[in-house]
Design brief:
Elements: H1 3-9, E1 27-29, E2 37-39, H2 52-63, H3 65-72, E3 73-74, E4 79-80, H4 90-100, H5 104-127
Antiparallel strand pairs: 1-2, 3-4
Helix pairs in contact: 2-4, 3-4
Length: about 130
């Protein structure tokens, strides 16, 4: 069985800080099936993901692969520094680190906090009084 097959069958709950129904990259209940959860990426317009693993794979392979490989992997040998497992591509290494070692959700939360702070700053600037 391939690693990706194992990952796709893994349906672990997201931490509570990702469980908001508001737009926070969290799981949301769909209209068609109230029991089914979807995981939406707040960094891009991708369609929601059916499982936590698919969501983490997306985050790891698209948005945070450079950070994950830089901090937890060796880009020359394509090996994970946490478990020494070797991969054929850097993207596979990043997905492994983000999903198996659960390193991507922390990066995602930090990025959302920075993005929300920047948005609030822009709103504050626009609302500032210009009659000083």
């Amino acid at each position: 069985m391939k690693i990706l097959d194992v990952l796709k069958t893994n349906k672990i709950e997201l931490p509570t800080f990702f469980k908001s129904r508001k737009t926070s990259g969290a799981s949301v209940k769909t209209q068609s099936s109230p029991m089914k959860e979807e995981f939406k990426c707040e960094l891009c317009p991708m369609t929601p993901f059916a499982t936590r693993t698919e969501f983490q794979d997306h985050l790891s392979g698209v948005h945070f692969w450079t950070e994950l490989v830089g901090e937890y992997g060796n880009k020359y040998s394509k090996a994970c520094s946490l478990c020494r497992f070797k991969f054929q591509t850097l993207q596979q290494l990043a997905k492994h680190i983000g999903t198996i070692h659960n390193k991507v959700l922390g990066l995602y939360q930090q990025k959302l906090m920075i993005t929300n702070t920047e948005k609030k700053s822009l709103i504050d600037e626009r609302l500032a009084c210009s009659f000083k």
